[in-house]
Design goal:
Layout (H helix, E strand, L loop, with lengths): L2 H19 L3 H5 L20 H15 L7 E5 L5 H8 L4 E6 L2 H10 L4 E5 L11 E7 L12 H18 E14 L9 H7 L8 H8 L3 E8 L1 H17 L1 H8 L1 H20 L2 E10 L4 H7 L2
Length: 298
């Protein structure tokens, strides 16, 4: 990728992230769970609360990378730092979080979790000085491609991401990835409201694009589709936002609240209908030792 194209993509991604995630920490506190986890929960029981399901989701990704034995972990798209906090509590010596939201970065830094570093930086620009035992990326992959990218261009961008992750991991490291994806809906059928007013300058991947991009770099150890989990999560967020509508309007205004209520309703419907899915993938470098080094050298 040329430097000018890379810079253009990074600038557009940063602007899009600020548009959505810098609505204000106080606004999100009203309807997210206390950990401020803004991604699909993992629901297993009918009586699960949002807090229980989000805790289970965090544990899923931490267990996937073997966080209990890790010395260094990278969180790409760290949000308000729920994963980073858990890593600090588990005694991981070094955890690095990447976010494009200044408000999120300030929030994480203010908590001063031991061993945690948060950077307001795009993964395209990140250059670590050491390798990691595990990489977690929850809800960031959706922002890597742009609506005007061809399928080939999307795969190229995703492959760049996987190639860099491979370079950043030890040979026996693990990448735990969670992303929304197109399912039985083509990108041309996507809601203009969602693309323009909620997540501008972003395009979802398909499972085929993800696997094509990872081919020869990462092996898929496991994959699950949690679309019904996300339908439930969005419905829970919408319910909480409605319950705090007056307070929310005082923070961001009635128009923004109405926009978020519409977005959460449409999202829940899209997941229920199977138009979009929620993929949780656990990936490991192909082979170990000699073969993994050969792949890295390409």
């Amino acid at each position: 990728m040329s430097a000018s194209i890379e810079a253009d993509r990074a600038a557009a991604a940063a602007a899009a992230i600020r548009h959505h995630y810098d609505a204000g920490n106080d606004f999100y506190r009203l309807w997210l769970d206390p950990s401020l986890t803004y991604s699909c929960a993992l629901r297993e029981n009918a009586d699960d609360t949002l807090e229980i399901a989000q805790d289970r989701k965090l544990r899923f990704h931490l267990n996937a990378i073997g966080a209990d034995k890790a010395r260094a972990v990278l969180d790409i798209g760290c949000g308000w730092g729920a994963i980073l906090q858990r890593l600090a509590q588990q005694g991981v010596a070094r955890s690095v979080g990447l976010t494009l939201s200044p408000e999120q970065a300030e929030f994480v830094r203010a908590r001063a979790h031991p061993g945690v570093e948060v950077r307001t930086e795009n993964w395209l620009h990140y250059e670590p000085d050491t390798r990691f035992d595990g990489i977690i990326s929850i809800g960031a992959f959706e922002h890597f491609a742009r609506p005007d990218d061809s399928a080939a261009e999307k795969i190229r961008v995703y492959r760049e991401f996987f190639t860099r992750c491979l370079d950043w991991l030890h040979a026996d490291g693990v990448l735990s990835l969670q992303t929304i994806a197109y399912a039985n809906m083509a990108r041309e059928q996507a809601s203009a409201f969602m693309q323009q007013e909620i997540f501008p300058d972003a395009d979802l991947p398909t499972l085929a694009e993800i696997t094509a991009a990872a081919e020869g770099i990462f092996e898929v150890r496991s994959i699950t589709n949690g679309r019904l989990d996300y339908a439930w999560t969005c419905a829970e967020w919408a319910r909480r936002l409605r319950a705090h509508r007056t307070e929310a309007a005082e923070i961001v205004g009635n128009e923004v609240v109405a926009r978020y209520e519409r977005y959460l309703k449409l999202s829940a419907l899209g997941f229920r209908m199977g138009k979009i899915g929620l993929l949780r993938l656990v990936l490991v470098p192909y082979g170990t030792g000699f073969f993994a080094d050969r792949v890295r050298a390409r």
